[in-house]
Amino acid sequence: MKSSLHTRIFFSLMILLTLSGCLHDLLIPRHHVSVRSFTAPETSSQVTPGKTFIISSLKPGFVGGLEFRSYAAVLSNILTNQGYVPQTDPNASADLMFLLDYERLPVITRQNPTAEPATMVSSASGRPMWVSHMDVVTVHPLQVHLQILKGTQSANDPALYEGAAKIESRQDDLAQAMPILLRALIEKGFFGTGGQWQNMVVMDERPRS
After folding, report:
1. Alpha carbon distance 131, 118 (integer Å)
2. Three-state secondary-structure class, residue 60
3. Cα distances (angstroms) measured from residue 29 to each of 23, 32, 197
4. What is the rounded distance in angstroms from the CA atom of residue 121 to the CA atom of residue 134?
5. pLDDT per residue over 71-117, tens digit each?
6. Cα dihedral 7, 11, 12, 14 sign
7. What is the CATH number of domain 29-113+130-203?
8. Phi (first) and psi of residue 175, to 5 degrees
9. Strand-pair partners of 145
10. CB count, 10 Å around CB of 155?
11. Burial environment of residue 178 by CB neighbours within 10 A (0 to 12, 13 to 18, 19 or more)
12. Which of 177, 199, 184, 162 is nearest to 104 (CA)?
């Protein structure tokens, strides 16, 4: 009898643990990101973990800016977590050069698909009239571009990889979107989409209070 009770308690605890894990996953924010990329035939053999890298910009004027340096640090952390090695010796060349660019696209205004439909009410004269509950939403498209060159190449040489990721945010906050956009390009692997935009979901790994 006691053995049966212990068994039921054990399985009840296992179910609770499983449900708590599922609930935890459901509470993690998910971000919908669109990705487009091109790869060269030698990308899979040249762009691999263990290679050293440096980070620069597609726009030379960005490199010295504080905003670019903060985004470059985000990119460096993601690459390091994926097994790439930052080249810290200024006198040594790196295996790979990552060129980073970013932009804020024109703001989009659209109707919220979750808004309540129009309803019929009585006017002051007693005649029926339709009242619209249109809810307008403003979104800020944010986009990141990434190129990968061999460390000995110049910016005019053919790239090993060219990719772009974009997200529609309710806030014009590129700093918050940057880790999501870069992870969409890097953590899924440097694959080619043939120039077609592909949708993907990225889990938010930022610490929550």
Report:
1. 5
2. helix
3. 12, 10, 22
4. 16
5. 999 999 999 999 999 998 878 889 999 999 998 888 888 776 554 55
6. positive
7. 3.30.160
8. -60, -40
9. 101, 164
10. 13
11. buried
12. 177
